[in-house]
Amino acid sequence: MSPEEAVTLVSQAIWVIILMVSVLIVPSLIVGLVVAIFQAVTQVNEQTLSFLPRLLVTLLSIILAGHWLLQEISDLFLFIFDAIPTKVG
């Protein structure tokens, strides 16, 4: 395996990780920001108030994007497994 092929493989893996994390984390961050602004405006300092909306948004993200996330990770693994015979030996 040449260094260029290894870099390509690692860059594809990192790209899939970035996509998966952004789909799951970014909506939760946005909801957390909205709840934090609401807490600052109303001066409600309850720590558990932001937990439930973020949890629900994360679960909703998993429900809505779960199929796509599994397809992306499966495609990456299939690419890696298909490339093994050509790269080794």
Automatic annotation (TrEMBL):
Source species of the chain: Vibrio thalassae
Recorded GO CC terms: bacterial-type flagellum basal body; plasma membrane
Pfam families: Bac_export_3
Membrane topology: Multi-pass membrane protein
Residues passing through the membrane, by range: 12-39, 51-70
Family per similarity comment: Belongs to the FliQ/MopD/SpaQ family.
The protein's name: Flagellar biosynthetic protein FliQ
Key words of the record: Bacterial flagellum, Cell membrane, Cell projection, Cilium, Flagellum, Membrane, Transmembrane, Transmembrane helix
Lineage per the UniProt record: Bacteria, Pseudomonadati, Pseudomonadota, Gammaproteobacteria, Vibrionales
PANTHER family, sorted: FLAGELLAR BIOSYNTHETIC PROTEIN FLIQ
InterPro entries associated with the record: Bac_export_3, FliQ
